[in-house]
Amino acid sequence: MSVSQIKIRTAGFARAGLAVMYRVEADWRAGYDPFDDGGFHPATLEGLHAQEYPVVKVTPKGKWIEVYGERKFILNASHKRFACETVELALASFKARKKRQISILSNQLRRAQGELDRLEKYLGQVPNPTTQPESLEELS
C-alpha cells in the first residue's frame, strides 16, 4: 500500500506550522445492520488512516505529543513508538505491530488447540463422561 492510499486525518496542525507525528490505524466498519433480521455480520476493513498528532514539546530525549487532550511522550531512541515523524515510518510501525499481534494470537491459538486435543484424548479414556450415575451404588 502506498502513502497516497492512506487517508490522513488532519486537524490542520501541519498547515498551521506545528510539528506533527503520525500513527496508522485500521478503519473497521461495525458488522451490525439494524434492518437485517440476523442483526450482526462480520466487521469489514474499510482501509487505513494516519492520525495526525501535534508535537507540543521537544526535549533532547524525545517529543511530547497531544493525544485526545492528554500528553504522551515519544522516546527518540525507541523502536516501538506510539507515533512517528512521517507517514512512511508510521506505516512501517503499523506493519510491525500487526506482525507482533499475529504472532501473539497464533501462539494463543496453538496453546488452546493443544489444550483441547489433550482434553479430547483424556475424555476418550473415560468410559462415558457425559452420563451421570443415578446413585452412589453405581460408583462402586
Q: Would you spell out the secondary-structure blueprint of this structure?
A:
Blueprint: E1 7-9, E2 20-29, E3 44-58, E4 62-67, E5 70-75, H1 87-125
Parallel strand pairs: 1-3
Antiparallel strand pairs: 2-3, 3-4, 4-5
What does this structure look like?
The protein is built from 1 helix and 5 strands, in the order βββββα. The protein has 140 residues and is α+β, with helices and mostly antiparallel strands. Strands 1, 2, 3, 4 and 5 form a 5-stranded mixed β-sheet that branches. Strand 3 and strand 4 (62-67) form a beta hairpin.
Give average pLDDT, whole number.
82
Question: Structural class of the secondary structure composition?
Answer: alpha+beta
**Percent range for helical residues?**
25-40%
Radius of gyration: 25 Å
Characterize the overall form. elongated
Q: Please state roughly what percent of the residues sit in beta strands, choosing from under 5%, 5-15%, 15-25%, 25-35%, 35-45% or over 45%.
A: 25-35%
Low-confidence stretches: none
C-alpha end-to-end distance: 68 Å
Classify the oligomer: single chain
Please outline the major beta sheet.
5 strands, mixed
List keywords for this structure.
elongated; about 140 residues
Quick summary:
The chain has one helix and five strands.
